[in-house]
Amino acid sequence: MKGVEIAFQTNKDGENDIVTALGNLTGNYFKNEENMDITWRIFHVTLDKEKYYRVLYKGEKISELHPENRKKIKEKFDQLSRTDYNALMAQYEKESRKQGFEKIGIKELTEEYDLWQDPLWNYI
User: How many CB atoms lie under 10 A from the CB of residue 10?
Assistant: First the structure.
């Protein structure tokens, strides 16, 4: 794995706001505070009748993130995801005003089931 993939669903109102805040706060924290060479993308995925979000983080110039950095990214994202909606949005509003804060929008993506790509095949 070259980066970090975080896939999840949310059942809260204002979910696009939450997902954008989580993705961008995490990415900008590592880019600006940890000086990590990182990029990220945020997707709203439709797979058959299911919908979920996927956030991908990867090193911009290097081909792979260090395993310790992948762990830190997951932990930071998880920590932020446990934050109260109002507190999260206040933090996002405050941080997004800072110089160098990058805002990545949500891209719609439609996927189809591909049994040949199913991880089950790795174990057969």
Answer: 14
- What pTM did the predictor assign? 0.85
61 membership: H or E segment, kind and range: none
Question: 1-110, superfamily in CATH?
Answer: Uncharacterised protein PF09406, DUF2004 (3.30.70.1980)
Place of tokens 């940890």: 34
Mean pLDDT for the chain overall: 87
Sequence ranges of the domains in the chain: 1-110
Specify the pLDDT at position 14: 61
* E-strand stretches of 2-124: 3-8, 38-47, 50-59, 106-111
Token pair belonging to 14: 């204002």
Q: What pLDDT digit, counting tens, does each position of 30-68 carry?
A: 999 999 999 999 999 988 888 899 999 998 765 568 889
